[in-house]
Amino acid sequence: MSANVLNSWKEIASYVGRGVRTVQRWEQELGFPVRRPRGKQRSAVIAIKSEIDSWLQTSHGDAAPSKDEILPWTPMRISKPLFENATTLTPCYSSLKRELKRAIAIDSALKATCESHIAQTLKTDALRNELRLRLDSLRKEIRRARALAKTLHTSTANGNGNGASLNPGLVQNRKLLLSGGGISESVPGAINDRA
Description:
Blueprint: E1 5-6, H1 9-16, H2 20-30, E2 47-48, H3 49-57, H4 80-158, H5 168-179
Antiparallel strand pairs: 1-2
Helix pairs in contact: 1-2, 4-5
């Protein structure tokens, strides 16, 4: 064969200083001059150096620089189907972005509500514990008051009834208890638990 003919994609790509896929893409998109002896799409290819040189010197957009201006790499060109898919996906992306912002806002609101609820629960638990402590303290006071009332009742029953034989402090405590309404005089030693 002639030295002017390139017999494979690899030889053609080497001649123009590009990769095989780049040269194949140039053939499909820009009409790079290759020939297929069998005439089929996927058959072997040949190319003539003079045709390639003249093709490289003509303007083919920004995809095919001349052989002397070939860079070590060029940015990937966006094909038409890829561009169409991108234009279809752009509105979906925008919608998803809005939904994500909305979900983040809802998440923040829920976190704030949960934190508020937890703080309120802790405060309620603290109040409940404080009330339990006070109730226990009141129960102890009631038991002491009942014991004191019983002691007073026993002392008055053994004495003459006017409290003359009683300790003056016990008589005063009995009067305080009776005047406060905590002990019923009709039933000595009983305490009204209406509270």
